[in-house]
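re the bet — no i am not wrong, look at it urself. input seq straight from the record:
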Amino acid sequence: MNINKLATLQNPDGGFGYFHGMGASWRDVTTEKALKRMYFLGLDPSRPLLRKTLDYLNKCLSGEAKIPDRVEKVINWELFSELMFSGWLAFFDCLTEKARLIREKWREVIEAAVKEGKFNYHEYELAFQNVFGRKKARERILNPASFYLVALLKNHLSPEAAEAYCEYLLETGVYYIYSKPLRPLPGELADIRSFYLLEAVKLIAVYASDKRKFAYVWEWITRGRHPDGNWYLGELKADGMIFPVSGSWRDRVNKTRDVTRYLNAVLRALAI
């Protein structure tokens, strides 16, 4: 999907139909898929297409608008919805006052879950219910490794909590992005799944005070760099989300440009 295609799919309210996907077909372009694609296309909030969607998120968070998704009964849907909207607003650095209040509650939960320098899931469960109320019977507690929470709390945890949370995410991955441990690495860089792993690494790198813990990722990426500074990953296939960015990959120049730009962005995030 390019920008023009996304514009034709956007509803007058700024959304794209279903938000998170509950009730949607895997083929549907949900609001969340559109947000991801706009991010990978390099749009910033000044662009009308993205601005309109972020305004829609603000309205959903304030209760002025409602997403059409089917309510998930196994979780606290209201709490989850607020986290989704706030997480995406934080991801694009467009937090509202209500989103900041939500972020503060989640900061309290995550920091209370850190004991002796480590993230403790049992303590997380206790802190979650202490802040948000006791969960109902058969109700699941929200995943502390979700993309929304990782996006929401960037640059907002104490140094000790940020480091412990980062270590926890290395062990679990980032739910909704790459839900597997981020170490050890898979063997092939020329696999689109490897780029979802790299996206998860890029997201959590902000939590690490010492980026040397990502040296293994840095080495994995740079091992495949050509002497001319580019990456030529002939077997890599575009997924329609991360890639392509600069036009059709039938033109190999576009493919090389897209891949090289992305991998250099990951290396900058790691800043070793």
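see?? The chain is about 50% helix and 0% strand. told u. also The CA atoms of residues 71 and 77 lie 6 Å apart. so pay up
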